[in-house]
Write a structure and sequence with these properties.
Strand order of the largest sheet: 2-1-3-4-8-7
CATH class of the largest domain: Alpha Beta
Number of strands: 8
Radius of gyration: 20 Å
CATH topology of the largest domain: Rossmann fold
Distance between the termini: 38 Å
Oligomer: single chain
CATH architecture of the largest domain: 3-Layer(aba) Sandwich
Shape: globular
């Protein structure tokens, strides 16, 4: 079953958004999510957005009817009692779009509700995955929007997630106003990766995969071939591809390409290097290849990306 993009919900008046706080009130995942959304609600008005925040105990007693519902908890938060967890998750799933932030993503996956769905699970919790959660497609990204399923790794990324929701629901103008109120210059996209956490996890569990990723990150300007990387870390090409597919949901060549394109995007937004220079600095000898690959990943050309910097 297909679902309309989140932007279609903005036509509903009012849009009802529920945040379920299963952790501490001052936790970063919660604060980073709720504060931008509260500012957006104040700007667009109650006729456009009704934002509700509840504890698990409160949501179990509430009547459903939300357009978006998110279950939020920091990584260190212990799971809810089994009976309460089932009731909370059922309330959450009653929304048109639903998902989790931080540990909430893991709880939903463990309930068997994320099979075949791309989820941004905090990598610090990925070691706790089991056969149920493995049926989900784990991504190392900051957040993921897959059909009606929403997920965010939590922590500081919850701010970027909230601002992305605001832009999709109410437009770039409202997002810009909230960014200004929070003194935020740049919103990280969902395609950006949890790099520090990813390296910390793989360093212990899959050292060769961690070494392969490090080789990619340190060889952006002159990319290595997949065979070269496999040889350098002591694996066959097939073994390396299997590791990337299992833990990163991608082939090494695709993962490497996205790393280079993310670096290119950063350079376009944060430096004054020409577009040609940026392409060369990220391993693209052909301007047309750079532009085509960039557009396929981000939906706009390097020139349009640079224009965003100039407009800002």
């Amino acid at each position: 079953m297909s679902f309309a993009p989140l932007s279609s919900l903005a036509r509903q008046q009012p849009l009802r958004l529920l945040l379920i706080n299963a952790g501490e009130a001052d936790a970063l995942s919660w604060a980073g999510l709720v504060q931008p959304l509260r500012l957006a609600a104040a700007q667009v008005g109650r006729d456009a957005l009704q934002l509700q925040t509840m504890t698990p105990a409160q949501v179990v007693l509430a009547q459903p009817g939300w357009d978006i519902a998110l279950l939020v908890a920091d990584e260190q938060q212990p799971p809810l009692p089994a009976e309460q967890a089932r009731a909370v998750i059922e309330r959450c799933r009653s929304a048109s779009y639903w998902g989790g932030v931080g540990a909430g993503v893991l709880w939903l996956a463990r309930a068997g509700l994320m099979g075949g769905v791309r989820i941004a699970l905090p990598w610090a919790l990925a070691a706790d995955s089991d056969p149920v959660t493995e049926r989900a497609i784990l991504t190392p990204q900051l957040f993921a929007l897959d059909g009606r399923h929403l997920s965010c790794c939590g922590g500081a990324a919850s701010i970027d997630f909230a601002l992305t929701l605001i832009e999709q629901l109410f437009g770039a103008g409202v997002q810009a106003s909230v960014k200004e109120s929070l003194c935020i210059e740049r919103v990280r996209g969902g395609e950006e990766r949890q790099r520090v956490a990813l390296q910390a996890r793989f360093g212990a569990l899959q050292p060769r995969l961690s070494e392969a990723v490090t080789l990619m990150e340190t060889n952006i300007e002159e990319p290595l071939s997949t065979d070269d990387i496999a040889n350098l870390v002591g694996l066959s090409r097939r073994q390396l591809e299997r590791l990337f597919k299992q833990y990163l949901g991608s082939l090494p060549s695709r993962y490497y390409l996205e790393l280079r394109l993310q670096r290119a995007r950063q350079l376009l937004l944060e430096t004054n290097h020409s577009i040609v220079q940026v392409g060369l600095m990220c391993g693209f000898s052909s301007g047309s290849h750079f532009s085509t690959a960039f557009g396929a990943l981000f939906g706009n050309t390097p020139r349009e990306e640079r224009q965003r910097k100039l407009q800002a």
